[in-house]
Amino acid sequence: MNAARWTRAAVAALLASTGLANADAQEIVLRFNRWVPATHHFQTRIMGVWAERVAAATKGRVKVEFTAASLGAPSRQFDLALTGVADLTAGNQAYTPERFVVSRIAELPFLGDNAEALSVAQWRVQEKYLYKADEYRGTKLLTVFNNGPSEIFTTKKPINSVADLKGMKLRTSLGTGTEIASALDIVQVSGPITDAYEMLSRGIADGTTLAPDSIRSFQLDKSLQYQTRVPGGLYNSAFFLVMNEAKWKSLPPDIQQQIMSVSGETFAREAGRVWDDQDRIANEQFAHSGMKTITLSDSALKDLKTRLAGIEETWIKQAEAKGVDGRAALAMFRREVTANLPR
Fold it and tell me: Are 324 and 189 members of one domain?
């Protein structure tokens, strides 16, 4: 090759290399569907903070951009990511209990009442056991996490025993919440949490089962007089964070690794910690406003556990039907909760 031809080849190679480098350095924008108000802590203290950590971990190569308004109802969050309407979504598994059957382990009664420990346990059990059920197929699961446990809140009647609940009209969550209502002869009042204020204020429901933070966030405490705490947690709400699978596979391997460095267990622990703090804030507000707080006695708790034991056994059978050792997974979940309680 003569000098002129060599020079032209070298320049061409240099230009190609530079173009490739510029393409690699180009900012990657991931669209995240935001379905909660911009001021809600789910956005400001959890998802928004995660987006900042993604930007830092990728040295600015990835920007998570939240939608101004939701592209779909809360129950459609997983499908929005699955179909590529959004690159990223986060949602409550209880909104679609028919999809997340095995993953419902994190919602079972009496697993614990610390969201941080529950969240870490959920992620570790997901990695060891639950992945076999492949309930997040079509997406890349970035993390799973829990909020604090649901408690019993009522408008007029204090709850001191299981017998006090019989025949009461309560707004409960789908999935495990529905099973609990059935086992305790509660009349379940259905409807999204956005309708709960009207249900309670108009007497359509006598109360609700929710985590303290949710009561405060939706201003339901204005209609509630009593809070009954269940040691060990009545049940929990489990959440997911997923990315469209095709979008995930399109990302360079180093970007994938950097995103996961701030996701997985790291994210689960931080999200749970935030929710514990939000419950603390809510309970302080309830005490200040004069809401009466009751903690179930040992005998009442024993009765409640007996009445709800079938829920756990049903889940174990469902897990086994999906090829998951439910009993082993549940045993591990409880060990991990105990091991990860804040010291």
Answer: yes
